[in-house]
Write a structure and sequence with these properties.
Oligomer: single chain
Radius of gyration: 14 Å
Helix content: over 70%
Length: 117
């Protein structure tokens, strides 16, 4: 993904810092269960954004960020124990950054990063 490769580490970090709270909100809302219409619409948007990701990115996002056990999961634990086969930290970061970038675009999350597509 050429656009993502052109972003600096700081810009990728800003994208993550903008998307992760959205994923955490989703996880909390889903665990509570009872939601109003606005919350249901938000959860639906998150689900649609995740659904269009490639399988490896979808697996990473759902296991690492949106499932009920996610708050107890670390990046290290994920890429060493849940990726099959295990991947290096660099590969994990690339997969995660690709997924976060796509989710931020799909949701229209304000990241503070100028992206020209």
């Amino acid at each position: 993904m050429k656009i993502l490769n052109s972003l600096s580490t700081a810009e990728k970090r800003r994208i993550r810092k903008a998307v992760i709270p959205q994923l955490e909100r989703y996880r909390i809302l889903k665990s509570v269960g009872k939601m109003n219409e606005e919350q249901k619409a938000f959860c639906s948007e998150i689900e649609q954004a995740i659904e269009i990701l490639p399988v490896i990115e979808k697996s990473l996002i759902t296991t690492r960020y949106t499932n009920p056990e996610a708050e107890y999961m670390t990046d290290y634990k994920f890429y060493n124990n849940y990726m099959n086969p295990p991947v290096s930290e660099k590969t994990y970061n690339r997969i995660r950054d690709n997924a976060m970038f796509k989710i931020s675009l799909r949701l229209g999350v304000e990241t503070g990063v100028e992206i020209s597509v």
